[in-house]
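Progress report, Aim 2. The chain analyzed during this reporting quarter is listed below.
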Amino acid sequence: MLLKEGGFILSEEYIFNKDDLPNSGIMVSDTGEIIKPHYPIFPICTTIDKNTGEMNLLGTGFFITGEGLFVTAKHVVLENFLEQPFRPHENLAAVFFMENNHYLVRSTTKIVVNHVADLAFGLLASYTDNQTGQILRNKRCILDISEVGIGDMVATCAYPKSKFFFIDNKNIASFNTNYELGKITQMFPNGRDRRLLPGPCYETNMIIKGGASGGPVFNKKGKVIGVNSTGIEGTDISFVSRIHEVLSMWLPEVIIGNQKVEKLTVYEMYKRGIVELST
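Predicted C-alpha cells for the chain:
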C-alpha cells in the first residue's frame, strides 16, 4: 500500500465569495453544512520515484461515500497508463487532506471506467488511525440527477498546476485550489463526438485548466451534476460529462461494514444509503 505523510501549502481561499453563488457557498456535505473543499475534493497523482516520493499530478477527484469511493474523469486514470505494463490503479494515488496542515497519500485498490462516457470511479485503500484505532472517514459530495438546462449556473473546484516537492526527507506539496464559475451553454445528450466525448455531456463557459479534469461540477444548490472533461485552451469553452452515467457503474466487490457484496452499482449504493443522490 502506498501511504505517505507530508505537509502542504494551500495557495487560495477555500470558500467561494458569498456574493458569487446562492446559499452563501458551494461546498455542501452529506449533512448539509458548507465545508471546505479540500475535504471531499482532492488531487489524483502517480508516483514518479518511489525512493524520493516524487509525484506527478494527473487530475482531480471527489468522494461520493464516506469510505473512500471517489469519482473522476476516465482519461485521468487511463491516459497516463496506456503504454505501461501494470493496471491503472497499481500506481495511482489520492492526496487525502487532514487537519493540522497535513495530508496522506493513499493508494487506490480498484478503478472502474465507463465504457462510453469520460467517467471513472475508484476506491481508496482504508487507513486506520494509530492513536484512536478508528478507520479514517471522509466528507462526501452529493450527486444530483435533476434536469438541467441551458443558462443554468455551474461551478467547479479542482487542483490544476499543483506541485510536489521532496525537501529534507519530507514530502511537501503546493496545492493550487482553483475555482471557476459559469453557465451551461449547450447540451449534448447523445455525446459531442464519437472519439473524445461520445457520452452525454454539457458545454459550459467555465475555464477548465490542466489538472482540473475529473473535478466535480456543481449546480447552484451545491450538488454535483457533472465532471470536468476538457477545456479548449485560450477560451472559455469547456465540456463536462454528465453525472448520471456513474449510477449504472459497479464495483466487482464492495465491503459494507464487515459484509462483502458482489457487483454493487452506485445506484444500489444510493438505495442502501451509502451514496447520497438528489432527483
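The helical segments are 74-78, 266-271. The chain has two domains: 3-142+246-278, 144-158+180-243. These observations will guide the mutagenesis work planned for the next reporting period.
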